[in-house]
């Protein structure tokens, strides 16, 4: 019965107040979908066509903008619906969700992706107009409107060789860093693409640096990769190395907003670890921050950089943050806690809550996520996987509901195998490049990201939702809501279930509406009050 208006558009049925024509789309702007048989579809871009996501335009007060993407094939479907003042006539629902804009939580910093060597290689493997399409797809007002960019300091596994900025013959050391120089990967891929992303973006982009491996001569193992710690006598050289990197990028007009103190410091403590890394205990890292990194940043007029600790999975929280912040020399230099998503499926978000409770002065920022990373996932790139879009949306909603201020995806673009990666640690990406075919594919993950990135500018503040379940079964619906700096309220829904979720949405400032969220659907609503 509630599906009576399905004819309007299939992703969401707004009972009673269906208003379907919000915006007419230029034919050339729309998604050209292709089904690779993995559950849903990709949008295909080539040298003459790519769908765009125009900036959102809000309807007048009393109506909500509704954007829908779904497994069934909707990609950023735009419509509007009116709030009703008379709640009593409204049909039954499974859940009533009421926005309480007075209860306020954390503010958004931003969303973004990583300028890995692999991303650069893939983007630059395409003809110039298509390179521009990808940069715009992420950083322009007609794309995801990303405002964060993670920049690896030297090589990562997503490089085609193992390198640092000061690689020497065995037995040699260079504590003054007189052989330090950026790599061809910086000069050819990362710097040009970052400069182009800056030009593409209509708002300033916050870049943050993360180091993976150190030169072998700085480590007890003598190697860039694998298990090994930084030699104690190299602590100050390693801090200087970071400053040299940041200054070298500044010379190319790329200024940094922050840095993480090490990508996944637990990796280099593992016996069988295979790629660029440094192993740190929290105690060692606190000493390095307090006695070396912090002071040397200040000495070089880089004291404004946001220093983010941990940069590892939430399984290490809150202990890692507690241990580092208990060091009185390190603590004053620390601004935030960087978190990776890989253990989120079995470690509860309580670890985020505790980290916030123990250190309310620190922001929490997700700094890495990708799908297809587990060894048992034999297919690394799954073209058209809606499951992976849901994993992204579910994780973003969950983390935002637990004090997180933003979310950073991993590689901006990978090839059809999920690389290149010098140790074959292939994974998936929201944009997959098919250079020989002169096409690239926007995965469902790309649209899942858009539901957050395009609606949540910096400074948006999370507000409370009161959820009252009335049906027999609790719908598998997750949600989060924010009030933006322009006072627009936004609310995201993800229905991962197999059933329609009937939602009664209440905002005492504007009224209420009932909407049906179809199975396997992501919806963002935005309204003025
Ligand atoms: C690009 O895609 C559009 C839309 O699907 C199609 O009409 C056009 O022929 C394609 N161009 C090339 C060069 O493949
Ligand atoms: C940096 O920006 C300045 C001013 O816009 C410009 O003159 C200069 O050429 C740029 N330098 C580089 C290396 O891009
Ligand atoms: C948003 O609302 C608050 C309080 O209702 C008001 O003080 C502020 O000026 C508004 N800001 C904008 C940008 O409209």
UniProtKB/TrEMBL annotation:
UniProt cross-references to Pfam families, sorted A to Z: Glyco_hydro_30 (PF02055), Glyco_hydro_30C (PF17189)
Residue intervals of the Glycosyl hydrolase family 30 beta sandwich domain: 459-525
Top-rank taxon: Eukaryota
Metabolic or biological pathway: Sphingolipid metabolism; Lipid metabolism; sphingolipid metabolism
Signal peptide positions (record): 1-26
GO biological process, alphabetically ordered: alcohol metabolic process; autophagy; glucosylceramide catabolic process; lysosome organization; negative regulation of macromolecule metabolic process; protein catabolic process; regulation of macroautophagy; regulation of membrane potential
Domain Glycosyl hydrolase family 30 TIM-barrel: 108-456
This enzyme's EC code(s): 3.2.1.45
CC per GO annotation: lysosome; vacuolar membrane
InterPro entries xref list: GH, GH30_C, Glyco_hydro_30, Glyco_hydro_30_TIM-barrel
Family to which the UniProt record says this protein belongs: Belongs to the glycosyl hydrolase 30 family.
Protein name, per record: Glucosylceramidase
